[in-house]
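Subject: design request, 218 residues
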C-alpha cells in the first residue's frame, strides 16, 4: 500500500508540473514575440508621412520644421532631398532606423531618451546630428566603399582603414551643400579634416566634382 501511494504521489507530482511548464513556454514565446511586434509596429508608424514633424516645440513650431522644409524642396538642396527624389517612398527612417539588431536597439534607446525628454519639457530642436541615429551601416547598405583615385579621401591608403570618421560627419544629410560636390558642406568638411590637418587653408575645396547626373539631381 505504501509503495502504491508513493507511485501515485509521484505521478500526481508530475502532472502538477505541466501547468508550470506551459506557463514557462508561453512566457518565453511572449518575451520573444512582443518586442518583435512592438518594433514592427513602431517602424510602420515612424515611417509614415509627417510622423517626425507631428510633435511641436513650446512656441508651436513643428519639430524638425526646417529639416522637413529642406527635405521637400525642389530641386534638392541637400542629401536628404536627393534621396527623397531618387528613392520612391523614402522617409526619415530610410536613414534613421538602424540595420542590424544592435543598430536598431541603439536607435530605439536614443528615441526613448528623446521621447522622455520631450514629455518632461526638456527638449528643443537639435543643434547637431546625433551620430547614434546615423550609424555607418545605414549608408553602407546602398553605398559600398568607393574605389576612387588614390588622391581622393576614400582612395588614400593613409585614410582607410585607419581613419574611422563616421560617414555622416562629412555627408550630412540635412545641411545645404552644392550639388556638384555631392551636397558636401565645405565648412563641415573642413572641420572634419582639421582634426588631423590643422593647417588646411581657408580656401580649401573638395578635390572632385560629382558626375553631371548627380549634379543635376536627376
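Subject: RE: design request

Done. Sequence follows.
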Amino acid at each position: 500500500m505504501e509503495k502504491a501511494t508513493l507511485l501515485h504521489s509521484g505521478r500526481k507530482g508530475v502532472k502538477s508540473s505541466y501547468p508550470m511548464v506551459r506557463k514557462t513556454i508561453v512566457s518565453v514565446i511572449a518575451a520573444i514575440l512582443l518586442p518583435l511586434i512592438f518594433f514592427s509596429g513602431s517602424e510602420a508608424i515612424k515611417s509614415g508621412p509627417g510622423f517626425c514633424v507631428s510633435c511641436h516645440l513650446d512656441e508651436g513650431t513643428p519639430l524638425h520644421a526646417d529639416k522637413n522644409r529642406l527635405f521637400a524642396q525642389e530641386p534638392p538642396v541637400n542629401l536628404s532631398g536627393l534621396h527623397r527624389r531618387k528613392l520612391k517612398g523614402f522617409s526619415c527612417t530610410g536613414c534613421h532606423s538602424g540595420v542590424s539588431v544592435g543598430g536598431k536597439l541603439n536607435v530605439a534607446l536614443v528615441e526613448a531618451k528623446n521621447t522622455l525628454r520631450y514629455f518632461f519639457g526638456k527638449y528643443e530642436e537639435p543643434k547637431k546630428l546625433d551620430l547614434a541615429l546615423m550609424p555607418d551601416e545605414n549608408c553602407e547598405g546602398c553605398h559600398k566603399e568607393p574605389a576612387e583615385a588614390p588622391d581622393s579621401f576614400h582612395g588614400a591608403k593613409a585614410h582607410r582603414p585607419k581613419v574611422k570618421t563616421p560617414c555622416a560627419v562629412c555627408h550630412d544629410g540635412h545641411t545645404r551643400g552644392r550639388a556638384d560636390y555631392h551636397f558636401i558642406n565645405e565648412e563641415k568638411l573642413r572641420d572634419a579634416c582639421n582634426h588631423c590637418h590643422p593647417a588646411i587653408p581657408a580656401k580649401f575645396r573638395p578635390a572632385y566634382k560629382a558626375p553631371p547626373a548627380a549634379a543635376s539631381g536627376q
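The chain has two domains: 1-44, 64-216.
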